[in-house]
Amino acid sequence: MSLSQNRRGFASDNNAGVHPDILTALTEVNDGHVIAYGDDPYTEKASAQLREIFGQETEVFFVFIGTAANVLGLSTVTQSYHAVICPETAHINVDECGAPEKFSGCKLLTCSTPDGKLTVDMIASHMHGIGFEHHVQPRMVSITQATELGTVYTVDEIREIARYTHEHGMLLHMDGARISNAAVSLGSDFYEMTGGAGVDVLSFGGTKNGMMYGEAIIFFDKALCKDFKYRRKQGMQLASKMRYIAAQFSVFLENELWKENASHANRMAKKLYASVKDIPGLEVTRQVESNAVFARIPSHIITALQDEFFFYVWDEELSEVRWMCSFDTTEADIESFASLLRSML
Amino acid sequence: MSLSQNRRGFASDNNAGVHPDILTALTEVNDGHVIAYGDDPYTEKASAQLREIFGQETEVFFVFIGTAANVLGLSTVTQSYHAVICPETAHINVDECGAPEKFSGCKLLTCSTPDGKLTVDMIASHMHGIGFEHHVQPRMVSITQATELGTVYTVDEIREIARYTHEHGMLLHMDGARISNAAVSLGSDFYEMTGGAGVDVLSFGGTKNGMMYGEAIIFFDKALCKDFKYRRKQGMQLASKMRYIAAQFSVFLENELWKENASHANRMAKKLYASVKDIPGLEVTRQVESNAVFARIPSHIITALQDEFFFYVWDEELSEVRWMCSFDTTEADIESFASLLRSML
Amino acid sequence: MSLSQNRRGFASDNNAGVHPDILTALTEVNDGHVIAYGDDPYTEKASAQLREIFGQETEVFFVFIGTAANVLGLSTVTQSYHAVICPETAHINVDECGAPEKFSGCKLLTCSTPDGKLTVDMIASHMHGIGFEHHVQPRMVSITQATELGTVYTVDEIREIARYTHEHGMLLHMDGARISNAAVSLGSDFYEMTGGAGVDVLSFGGTKNGMMYGEAIIFFDKALCKDFKYRRKQGMQLASKMRYIAAQFSVFLENELWKENASHANRMAKKLYASVKDIPGLEVTRQVESNAVFARIPSHIITALQDEFFFYVWDEELSEVRWMCSFDTTEADIESFASLLRSML
Amino acid sequence: MSLSQNRRGFASDNNAGVHPDILTALTEVNDGHVIAYGDDPYTEKASAQLREIFGQETEVFFVFIGTAANVLGLSTVTQSYHAVICPETAHINVDECGAPEKFSGCKLLTCSTPDGKLTVDMIASHMHGIGFEHHVQPRMVSITQATELGTVYTVDEIREIARYTHEHGMLLHMDGARISNAAVSLGSDFYEMTGGAGVDVLSFGGTKNGMMYGEAIIFFDKALCKDFKYRRKQGMQLASKMRYIAAQFSVFLENELWKENASHANRMAKKLYASVKDIPGLEVTRQVESNAVFARIPSHIITALQDEFFFYVWDEELSEVRWMCSFDTTEADIESFASLLRSML
Predict the structure, then answer these.
(1) A20, A239, C50, C74: which has the fewest Cβ within 10 Å?
(2) Looking at the partner chain, which of B97, B105, B134 has a beta carbon nearest the beta carbon of D136?
(3) How many CB contacts within 8 angstroms connect chain C with chain D?
(4) Would you say the pTM of this structure is higher than 0.95?
(5) H/E stretch holding D323
(6) Structural domains in chain C, sorted by start
(7) A31: chain B residues, CB-CB within 8 Å
(8) Mean pLDDT by 10 residues, chain C (345 residues)
(9) Cβ B169 vs Cβ B211: under 8 Å
(10) H helices within B125-256, ranges in order?
């Protein structure tokens, strides 16, 4: 594929580059020597910022990517005979090439959902064989906020899942690869919909929202992660030059860059939705609650459309496509795209 | 530890920051959108540069860190009942928190060495139980170039190990976290002492030599790594915004930045050696062949010395310490340090 | 539970004891010393008998139990990023406490079935993401013969699954824990519905049909299992006193004890079915094709009925129970049970 | 190898058959149905007998083989970043094809020993890097009683190792594949040299001492094994027809069959030692403390000697061989063997 012009499209928020403030932050911490592997003042500062947001009782760790945050988060609180209950569409189930199973040994028990969101009833459908040694034992529930389908759990929905999860001796994990988009969508702060709602382990992502690399894992109870440092190292996720991950998080958090970026991306998605929803022959298929728009379009136009603005087909059979907006999507991008689409239909 | 001034020390080459050219490279590729996960022109360019160096027959992959390069390199060509023969001092044995065992299932068979360098005789001492199902089966030999003790294998030494390794149906892995320092030390090009000498899998590192993050794995025979892409993803080492790793490698290679940095670090180590070797009460304990100086010094001066220039004790019992030079070590650093040391002894 | 009298029930065919001929066989091979771990004439004899049945090109190994046969069979031909497609009800999915995931790293992709039997369409529903590194890669299809629901694949059904499986570069595994019951049910010989129909790896069980312990794994292509001996040892399934497993298989096979036992168990199931099917308030829920009868009965009679003849509830919500017949079930057992059941309803 | 006559040799105590009382026991429990997977009166009885010996506070589980007892014992109390300290000669290190690493993820840290016995000093040599995330963390010490070299730890030696182990926050595992031979050798009861001396987890073996199959794992603190039942099932070690393992243990323990068998085997080893020690050209190389005799003999006689009485070469280079006596070795066997040996030298 010719991308010589690095033309913006709607393929994924991680096709975007890095916000300029993030790049600047990398340069600002570049001076001199600091202890490697995270025992440095920049890492301490970013950790303190996260504890400021999520609570002083939390424990904060940095890793390279979201898959690692998810997998190490799960592994740390499970044993190999445990099971993790999640939606069929969860990133941990579909997009991590079996890393959860390989690294933790656990089985994923999946639920079919209409919208990417788990409910208590779905979780309950897997709660059998408890104490029976022939069965894997459910130990964790994992939800994604915002979901892979662009939908967003309300704080109450998360609370209800957390209540059920804890009542049944399990823990609640949240994959927050797009947590900023969800927070903006709900008008919630980060804590309210995570630890405040009963989440035990959070993968807090920034790469899809303007960072270069790096993800944080937040444990809301320190007792859960006493040995996490060994698991991170053994999980090949301990960065030597940690200051450059920390610096990104600091600027991401301190000027509410996360909010600026996510608000923009969500707004662009709303605009995209508004611009295309009435085009005949096109059907928007999911609630637009964060930075994604899903739609069915005639299959014969897909390739030509992709040539101008790259995006992925979500479901070949249904001719359903996904359009992701990102922090750098422009109004002009939306207008050109909608206009092109309109002209094709 | 107060590091507010980010004072340079001799703790490790990964306590150093990032070379300015690398930082610049990150900015230069930041424009617009490219496909995530490595299907982008920057990754293609960096891969082509590496194939230029290592041979068109090689296959090149990027991961985040050296531990991952080692572990995934080993895992890809072994099965869980295999064994990997390496020196007792190998990074894979001592410094990866059991990641090789956890991820590959393999046992490491270690050899005691005087200088961190494996020999054919040492390898041969583990070649028993072949074909006997009660024993793990040796499948790989792993050497580090330059070694963890700062020594360097000659090209002939590598050839001899490769010959034995292949004759016995095994593969040769090289941990090249400091391969630039070794190349400079030998006056060898990269290929001559790797694929040219019989190495099958190479972890090619840059982070200890001025990069921010990112490591390459080079397979010299494509047949060995047909499924590596799945292993990398499952191994939680597939970067979404790959262009920023690729950009670092491009600048690292294209202007011979690697050579400039490594030459400097090695020269500083030689200067450090020259400056301290005759100090009474100090004994240099290893050949200074790359960017490390090992020495025994009286234990009572260690803490005070570390307060000024941080470094690590290598062997508490022997009072042996390690001083690493890096791309940004200055002549003045060496002079101040040597002078301080002299004043203490 | 008081079982002082070891009263026969319908809980499971592995609640039964051991056929007297099997016990005799153990005594007959007890004389003197033979090489441990399977290099003995008894193991050679039993292996030859299995090769006689399944083909001289097959490779035969003994392990302790069915779970191990399944898990090692799968592990030997997969890598950790592969997936195994199976029915939701498969023993490997439900009854092995996650051993397949733990040992192989693979993900199981499950299909909802009405009768425990996989079809090509079900398999096809999982055939996406091929070559896409974010997804696990389907490598194996696993079917159970007779199924966990007592149903039996016809030879043609197996052939059709094998055809599709092989066309898509996958391998076909059969869990034959109750293969004797299936063979008798179909009037098929073992080969016709396994290797003859395209099965690549077979777990061949005897414990549920009158043996004490021991299971065979049959690889129909030797190339698939060149390293199996290491996997068996590492999988903790290499018996030291192998002759006692081999002796059981020899007598199981040589006098068609397998057929005698399975025919009897199947006949008893047919008789049970005939005896209860018309009882009002009872509904037989599955085809009775092997040695199991599934039925819905009023939940209030279950406990009292279990007190006389133990059995398991299959689905609490549906009040569906499972009654297994075994080689030692008597006509009188059936008559007493049916009569008791009738009196309760 | 022709073994048509099943001639007794000195290859291994597991080349021997099964004691007649064990065979009888299998028949005696064969009547009727009992619940599978260990919820039966025979398993309860054997467990009670073991608790009688090892303490009411212990938890007892049965598995198929010694490798599994070792591996599951280790896995249950470790996490993947832990290390297990053991002698280089340990069965877990040399003879289990990497099963401990594969199943637990742990690294084995080995100690070279003159006699197969660990000492506190050897253990201490591995106690560094504690709390340092780059290193595996020592969590368990494993000793073998009697050792693979036929030597036996005194009760005081075990106590001293246990004291050090516990003081350093670790647990002590004993591989008791030949624990009966050790108990007889010391004149100790089982408890005194296990739980009584500080052992936390014991692999209690019977197969090398006249049983057919089956091994017990004893946890001396129930808190250590709360989830063992899941690990055993996932570890493919849960026998369906458990009564036949239990029955063997019952007869093994209740009439002190273990002592009768082990006393005999040890006595035969002493007799063998006495018969050969003065033969010129032969040198006994290890203390004869249990049922093994190790000796150096001229390499040119080995094959001819093996043709009459099979045994294994222990160390090819040293021309050291191992002769194991078993419960069924006869005085005549010893006399013929010694006489043949004498005639050859």
Answers:
(1) A20
(2) B97
(3) 180
(4) yes
(5) strand D320-324
(6) 3-15+257-344 (3.90.1150.10), 20-255 (3.40.640.10)
(7) 6, 17
(8) 70 96 97 95 98 98 98 97 98 98 98 97 96 97 98 98 98 98 97 98 97 98 96 98 98 95 98 97 97 97 95 94 97 96 94
(9) no
(10) 155-167, 179-186, 228-234, 243-254
